[in-house]
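Hi V.,

You were right to ask for the full record rather than a summary. Here it is.
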Amino acid sequence: MNPSTLNLAHMTFNEFLPVIFMSLMGFAMLVYVVLDGYDLGVGLLLPRASDDDKDTMISSIGPFWDANETWLVLGVGILLIAFPKAYGVVLTALYLPVAAMLCGLILRGVAFEFRVKARAHHKHLWNHAFFAGSLIASLAQGWMLGRYITGLAQGIEFDIFAALIALALPAAYVLLGSSWLIMKTEGDLQKLALRWARIAWPAVAVGMLLISLATPWVSATVRERWFSLPAFFALLPIPLSTLAALLGLAFCLRGERVLGRASHIPLMLSGYIMTMGFCGLAYSLYPFVVMDSITIWQAAAAPTSLKFILVGVAITVPMIAAYTVFAYRIFGGKATGLRYL
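Predicted structure:
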């Protein structure tokens, strides 16, 4: 199937199935980046806090962090069962960073459980382990994203681009994490989180600018899709709304109004910025599941298999979404010190 001749309105249901699964996979990855992004950010901020504040920071993500990772499992699972050819190509090329990410996530999980029950003189070791796991996972995810955007191409310029994103993504996670703490904490820790967000904002803004400039440079496909007419004008709302959200976030972080009833606004704006970045990436990639190499139709499983899988996805995705919403409603409000009864 020629990507240049695709028209969603004229597709048969069998031809549209890969689009459905690609959309579900993208949605799962976006939710993961936003939700697990803030708790990875909290882990990255942990060394900068006092011992008492560390307990409150861990408590703020305690009911959520494990469930947040469910969206990563869902996204990778869809890639495996719906696009097996792409799964083999992507995982083969990114085997080492995937292994590093999994090691980081495992280290975070072990550290989270053991730090609560550890003796006082061992607790700092688990704090360092939680930070290290968060850092390893964040850097690995950034590197994988950079390599994926360039279609897994080889060359020094592509490695530099991947390294740039590997540094920019943890900064975005720190912004999400500090915004989360502004919403979930109070007192001195909340003021400290506001200071962290102010420090992270310039790094995120500069990182997004550099990535926006570098992506068309390393990918001719992205350059053509974004800078051809009339697509350029149709796509302007994405960068303009992202810029507006960045400026709005900077304005919110200038004063201390967000320490009160508006404490949720920084997290909402940070999440919106990540969402707009995802929308731009999705437009750049479609209809490829591996840039310039494999389209979603070439990588997709047989239509009969996709129809069978769709039944399971129609059951599990709403259940995961409902549980996520339920958990955030039940454990809303300000965080307190971490305690086990």
